[in-house]
Amino acid sequence: MMILELAFTATPERLAARPAHRSFLARLHEEGRLLAAGPWADDSGALLVFTGERAEVERLLEADPYYRTPGVEVTRVREWAPVVGPAR
């Protein structure tokens, strides 16, 4: 599994791009490639949990222009090995 951490600023471009991004995430979840995703409570960033390997996550980052939108910064991509909960 891979964890993606994002940092946000309140730019109009980010807010305008968010609906399409969330639709993309919903599709990934339906396909089983995204376990969970959501913003921090203060909307300063978000956490996404992907079920695939790093190469797949990198391809998904390229496929979704949200990650290159002003106001969105990918702060960390790292492998995660859960010991409790779903593991795929």
Describe the overall structure.
Helix content is 33%, strand content 31%. It starts with a strand and ends in a 9-residue tail after the last strand. With 88 residues, it is α+β, with helices and mostly antiparallel strands. A hairpin with a 5-residue loop joins strand 2 and strand 3 (45-50). The chain has a single domain (2-79), classed as Dimeric alpha+beta barrel (Alpha-Beta Plaits, 2-Layer Sandwich), CATH 3.30.70. The chain is built from two helices and four strands. Belongs to the YciI family. Pfam families: YCII (PF03795). Residues 12-80 form the YCII-related domain. It comes from Nonomuraea dietziae.
Give me a quick take on this structure.
InterPro entries: Dimeric_a/b-barrel, YCII. By secondary structure, this protein is of the alpha+beta class.
Task: Name the features.
alpha+beta; 88 residues; single chain; four-stranded antiparallel sheet
